[in-house]
Amino acid sequence: MDETRTVSILLLGDPGCGKSTLLSRLSQGQHAPKVPGRLPVLRDLDQPFIFDISMYNRPYRFEFFDTSSPENYTLLQPDFIILCFDVTDRRSLINVPQVWRKNVTRHFRRDGEDVPLMVLGLKRDARVEEEGVIYPQEGYRIAQEMRCDRYAECSAVTGELINEVFEDIARTAAKTKTDAGGLTQGGCTMDGYAADQT
Fold this sequence. Notes:
alpha/beta; seven-stranded mixed sheet; 9 strands
C-alpha cells in the first residue's frame, strides 16, 4: 500500500465570501442535503478540515485551512492556495488581486517556486442579472491576469458544480506531490462548466 500523501490547501478571501460554507458542503460528501441552511457549522478550532481520498491509485489526505484559522495563516506552508470571492460582491473580486494575491506573493513560496493558485467564485446561486454582476468570464480574465493555474465557480448552498470543483481541487492538489508539480504550463484553465452562465 502506498504511503498517504498529505496536501495542505489554504483558502484565502474576504470574510463572508463563502469559504466556510464551501468547506461545510465538502464535509458532507456527495450526499449533502440540497436544502439551503441545512449544512453543518464548522468551528475554526477544528482546522485543518481533513478529507481522505484516493486518486491516481494513491491515497491522499487533503488538509484545508480557512483564512480564519486559529493560528496565523501566514505561518502555514500550503501546497496549494485557493483565492475565493463572492460572485455577488464586486469588492471581494477586486480584493483577490489587490489583497490576497499580494499576500500570496509576500508569504508563500516553496524553494523559490510559486505555489499553485486557483481562483474560485462562490455563491453562484445568488448571481442575478443586474448592474455590476460578475460573470464567469470576468473572474476568469482576472485569474489569467494574475497568472493563476485554474478558475472555477460553484454554489456551496445548493451544491451546484460542487463535485466538479472538488474534482478540480483534488486533481491540482494531487499533482503538487508529483515531480511535475501543480503549476500549469500554459496558464490559467477553466473547465467548460464554469463558463456556463446562470
